[in-house]
Amino acid sequence: MGKKHKKVVVLPCSGIGKVYGAVARETMYELLERVRPDTVATTCLPLLVIKDPEAVALVTENPVITIDGCPKDCAKKSVEALGKVVDKAYEAIKFYKEHKDLKPEGIAEVNETGRKLAAVAAEEVTAEVDRLAAGEGA
Q1: Residue 66: which of 42, 99, 49 has the closest Cα?
Q2: In whole angstroms, what is the distance from residue 76 CA to residue 88 CA?
Q3: Structural domains in the chain, sorted by start
Q4: How open is the CA angle 33-14-56, to the nearest 5 degrees?
Q5: Among 98, 72, 89, residue whose Cα is nearest residue 14
């Protein structure tokens, strides 16, 4: 077992205008605000792109989970561009493929079904958050 971490960074894609980008963001909000508010932290991708010192430190000094909305993996690639290996990467569409009854709709905000999908996704990601916070490596 490795060093315990106070924070685990969950970084969703920006995916503006895309339903699975919205699901990725909603999943992060579930984790940050409801499921693990004392453990999860986040920052926005543009701050990493411009190499904001605080955002870079947050990402490089803590375990990182990315949730991308599509196979372009922008969140994951943004972290890797800093020389950091992502501890766990998810694609939001895979949560839907596992829960076809929860079809998300919407762009800036997801519908009620999309919020339910995000809650289900957050519960799945929670196990990984807890594992990383405990210092168990990828």
Answers
A1: 42
A2: 9
A3: 8-129 (3.40.50)
A4: 75
A5: 72
Per-residue pLDDT tens over the stretch 77-112: 999 999 999 999 999 989 999 998 998 887 778 889
Q: List, in order, residues 6 or more apart from 33 with CB less than 8 Å away.
A: none
Cα separation, 44 vs 19, in Å, equals: 18
User: Which two tokens mark 127?
Assistant: 């196990």
Residues 24, 71 contacting (CB under 8 angstroms): no
pTM above 0.90, yes or no: yes
- Say which residue the tokens 């020389």 belong to: 83
Residues 27-69: tens digit of each pLDDT: 999 999 999 999 999 999 999 999 999 999 999 999 999 999 9
Supply 79's token pair: 């972290």
Would you give the DSSP letter of residue 35?
A: I
